[in-house]
Amino acid sequence: MRTFTHINAHTVNEACELLGQYRGKARLNAGGTDLLAMLKGDIWPEYPEAVINVKTIPGLDSITENDNVLKIGALALLSDVAKSPTIKEKCGVLAKAALSVGSPLIRNVATIGGNLCQAPRCWYYRYPRRLGGPLPCLRKGTGPCLAVKGDNRYHAILEGKGCFAVCTSDIAVALAALDAKITIAGPKGERSISVVDFFQPLGNTLKIDEMIKDFQIPATMLSMEQRFLKFTLRKPIDFAIVSVAASIGLNNGVCTDARIILGAVAPMPFRAKAAEEKIVGQPISDNVAAEAAEKALANAKPLSMNAYKVEIAKTLVRRAIKGSTAGLGE
Amino acid sequence: MIDSYRYIGKETPRRDGAEVVTGSAEYVDDIRFTNLLYGEVLRSPHPHARIKQIEKSKAEVLGGVEAILTWENVPDWKFGTPTIFRILDRKVRFVGDAVAIIAARTKDIAREAARLIEVEYEVLPPVFDMEAAMKPGAPQLYEELPGNKLPLYAPVLGPKSLTEIVMGDVEKGFAEADVIAEGTFGYENIPNPLPPEPPSAVALWQEPNKVTVWVSNQQVWLNRKILSEIFGDNVEVRAIGGPCGGSYGSKVMSWQVQCYAAALSKATGKPVKVCFSKEEHLAAFVLRPETRIHARVGMKKDGTVTAISGKWLLGTGYYSMTTQAQLSVGAGEAQIAVRCANWDVKPTIVCTNRNASGIVRGFGGQELKCALIPLLSLAMEKADLDPFEVLKKNYLKPGDGYYWRDGNWYSYRGVDYTKAMEKGAQTFGWKAKWKGWLKPTALNGTKRTGVGVGIHGNADIGEDVSEAYVRLDPEGRAVIYSSVTEHGTGQRSNCIKVVAEVLQLPLEAVSITPSDTLITPVEWGPAGSRGTYAILSAAIAAAEDAKQKLLQFTAPLLGVGMGDLETEDGFIWVKNRPDNRITWKDALELRTVLGHGRFNPDYSFANCMMSFVEVEVDTETGKVTLLRVVNATDVGQIIDPPGIRGQLNGCLGTAGIDSALFEETVLDRATGCVLNANMIDYKWRTFSELPPIDNVIMETPFPSHRFGAVGIGEVATSPGPSAVLMATSNAIGVWLHEYPVTPQRVLEALGKVGSK
User: Fold this and answer.
1) ipTM above 0.90 for this complex
2) HSE, side-chain direction, 13 A CA sphere, residue B489
3) What is the pLDDT of residue A325?
4) Nearest CA of chain B to the CA of A12: how many Å?
5) Of the candidates B115, B279, B748, which has its C-beta nearest A128's C-beta?
6) Are A130 and B676 within 8 A, CB to CB?
7) For residues B416 and B648, what is the distance between their CA atoms, to the nearest angstrom?
8) What pLDDT is stored for residue A327 in this prediction?
């Protein structure tokens, strides 16, 4: 790794101030599982001048329930999220998503906030300097997206505009299905934003001097049926090729309400509104699930090598609606 | 199995076991040196380019940088087959090719210097496809290799190395056939064997002509031999091997890594260490060769193969050291697996602008089998024959012969493997599971299971030369002089076992020297599966020679002939008169005894491995899951039970069975970059997903050495990939022609998504 300044922040304000002082040339370090890989690969056009450690901020790792809102601090470890009795009981989809990330060693250091802020999982974006890289690309501000003419087997099948890297955050998909809000702290105080709105085609809405403080999950979502499915080649370690998180309200087998979110198919978590509309008011059946799955992927535009992801996505949506988890690395 | 052995066939602790599991084993990167410099490689961003200019002045003034070498000032060392490949050249031929090597006081300084070197390239068009590379007008990688074709001859294997499989009369063979099948199969996913320890070396060049190299390799003497050829015989090369953190063939040789260290040491006068990073290991070391075969197969209704004719394309990437030898061995192995009187299989070796292919377990044969067995299967399908029966029938039997790698004909004098295959089939339940070609074994909702079988064998178990000395010390101890390194198979422990068995000493009383070519005699090393027969034969012979000399010396002291004496645990006594005995110490006083053992190549034995696999295919997602593996073999005599189990359980990884399921090196045909040079994107099975593996290991004594054993370890990976292709094809009812069986390929075959 190259030389950088390392600073321990003790408050959220201090971290934001430091970010401001470095004008985009500093990176926050929470768990570091992604940051260190990026630093070692030396893939960014500009190497960070400073790394601001936020693990030294007390209290940001708590998981609490108040006034029908479940609040999870940005520094909560994925292993804690996965095993928290409250989360397991009230938002199982999040516990499952957390448990599906990486390996035990990674979950023991990786944080929930860091998971949302991970760099895109694109092998062109991440191509290391040591092998003749880094590769300039649209996401880095120079040139076209290399996936379009290259090996795009893992890239976007929906909503790709310019950059076809996908958002592989399992946590984002689960939180979006729970209609969670993110509290973002900055120099001007705090703001709240939904998880779906947090993501943008080329990244997220965080300004250079902002950081995620916590996540808030409304109680209304907690009572719904929650499902999380993730398709990978290997059960542990792998990032999703496609994931689906769904919250489905059921009354005597009839769907009353639904949020269906797909991960790793688009640059952002993709909300399958057409599928939701298809099932609300219907009794859940094979046909309804299949029709909803078709609707969810109706606008899919696969690249040269990833049409298979459309089929897998449909399968996952279908299975998520039906409540089946067969054979998906569970 | 003979029960009277003291150690052979018994579970005994690995000599290096405690060191390895406690982390105290010293690998190359752990060894401490004074004044050590760190080597770093600046690599090309282009798959094909001419270097116009290298501006290194900014890097040279960086504090701590001691040498920067480029094609302009590096020694003109060349190697490969043919000997035309320079360690740094004016041209770069793959993304990641070495442009400059840097020695600096710390790793970080060396890395920083690499960032400061500015290179101006004249970018040339690249070629990545084997067939495209041979077309007129294709970009040419080397002036010396018109059409990007390499000569097929492998000098290392002798003056008439096998360069094709041609015998009999294929037209006559096809005329005799009841069915003729034709097709193309490719094993082109260039997986990486990926040992945990990356290629590494430390070199110390002492002017004018002495160089010591500490290596992380499988074959230390071979390193010395190759480096001597590169540097010239006037340079004294000493190679020192320590524990080798895995190799799987790939670290038989890493001459580039060693030459980088040696050149930088020559330039600085200090020891220089070069340890590849994981990404360099994945993208700039060696991969499996790629294979594409188009062939016709003639077969009779009874499964007799009457003719095989076709074209075998072998891709070697930007250079070759051993691809020709892999071709030779693969061509020999084809005849071992398939008894056929009429062959006409002509290979071509092609260079393309990707990282090079090198040695990987299966050495040419796995690559060939992955296409040849599916081609045979097409004929079996036409004749409606059970592949187990056909493979069993056509495997080498005692008295059969084959042209081996040196171009000579050998007659097989080992055991008949039929029983082992049948026991394997029984263990797997083949008869109940086999439902016919392209028919699943079972249906379960959206899932289908299918079964497949593959076979492989290698006459390398007696290849090349080994020598060992055994020194007997008066205190009742023995020392083995051998350059064998421990690359994970337990070979050094097995040397100790056989010597202790011959001399009837406690295991603790036998030690083995470091793998240092200054001390030890010549030894080809544990290549292929030669360890058990070739290497152990030399150790056994050395121990027998030492024992004979000991008894010869002692006989007059006890007033008997040496034939009347026995020795055990450091005592020598007269047979049937145990009271008339003497200790080694009293017999030898201040004297040591040295025995010498040599093994000369013997290609009249071949091993055999048959693998059965069952897979489950999710027809909605295209995911293929390996449910079970059964391996069946006969090894004559097990030397070390946990050792052989470990070898056979190694059938999945190291570019083995998993290279049919998900392991592949992703070469981007647009940029030339290896895109998955990390352990997330390179799919490597994790321990939590190991399927059940049953190993059927029979012990029918071979007329090999006194323990009747032969080696098997290398080929464990080889029969499985084609078995997975067969099993998956059977499960989905459609032939798959390429590896690995990705969701994309499966869903395309099922017609659920359009092909690209």
Assistant:
1) yes
2) 29
3) 45
4) 32
5) B279
6) no
7) 20
8) 35
As a whole number of angstroms, the distance between CA A231 and CA A216 comes to: 27
As a whole-number percent, the residues of chain B with pLDDT over 90 amount to: 98
Same domain, B115 and B214: yes
| Partner-chain residue, chosen from A1, A132, A235, that has the shortest CB–CB distance to B45 | A132
Question: Using the beta-carbon criterion (under 8 Å), do B675 and A128 form an inter-chain contact?
Answer: no
DSSP B326: H
Q: Which residues of A touch B685 (CB under 8 A)?
A: 234
3-class SS string, B192-226:
CCCCCCCCEEEEEEECCCEEEEEECCCEHHHHHHH
Task: Give how far A145 is from chain B: nearest CA, Å.
Answer: 12
Q: How many other C-beta atoms lie within 10 A of the C-beta of residue B269? A: 15
* Residues of B (501-560) whose Cβ lies below 8 Å from A: none
Domain-embedded: residue B251: yes
Cα–chain-centroid distance for residue A87?
17
Neighbours of B580 (CB within 10 A): 15
Q: What pTM did the predictor assign?
A: 0.97
Query: Are B98 and B234 within one domain?
Result: yes
Helix-strand-coil percent breakdown of chain B, rounded to 5?
A: 30, 25, 45
pLDDT at B3: 65
The mean predicted confidence, pLDDT, of chain A is 94
List CB contacts of B670: < 8 A, sequence separation 6 or more: A146, A149, A150, A151
- Give me the pLDDT at residue B485, please: 93
pLDDT in the model for residue B755: 63
Same domain, B658 and B576: no
Q: What domain count does chain B have?
A: 3
Q: Do B96 and A306 touch (CB under 8 A)?
A: no
pLDDT confidence of residue A330: 36
> B260, B284, B308 — which closes off a domain?
B284
CA angle (B444, A320, B727) in 5-degree steps:
30
Residue A128's alpha-carbon distances to A132, A153, B272, in angstroms, are 7, 19, 24
Q: Is residue B300 part of a domain?
A: no
Q: Tell whether A45 lies on the interface with B, counting CB pairs under 8 A.
A: no
Q: What is the CATH number for B252? A: 3.90.1170.50
pLDDT at site B471? 98
B236 and B254 together in one domain: yes
- On whether residue B311 sits in a domain, the answer given is no
Contact B65, B113 (CB under 8 A): yes
What pLDDT, in 10s, does the model give residues A115-172?
Answer: 999 999 999 999 999 999 999 999 999 999 999 999 999 999 999 989 999 999 999 9
Instruction: Give the residue ranges of chain B where pLDDT is below 50.
Output: 1
Whose CA is closest to B456, among B488, B480, B421? B421
> Going from the N-terminus, what domains does chain A have, and what CATH number goes with each?
224-322 (3.30.390.50)
For the stretch A240-255, pLDDT in tens is: 999 999 999 999 889 9
- The number of residues making up chain B comes to 756
Q: Can you give the CATH number for the domain in which B573 is found?
A: 3.30.365.10
Judge if B515 and B583 occupy the same domain: yes
Within 8 A of B669 by CB-CB distance, chain A residues are 150-151
Question: Which of B656, B16, B73, B71 has its CA nearest to residue B361?
Answer: B656
Same domain, B657 and B731: yes
Distance in angstroms (rounded) separating the CA atoms of residues A39 and A55:
18
Chain B segment 587-626 residues within 8 A of A by beta carbon are 618, 620-623, 625
CB contact under 8 A, A236 and B689: yes
Short-list B744, B731, B722, B737, CA closest to B657: B722
Domain's final residue, options B229, B259, B284: B284
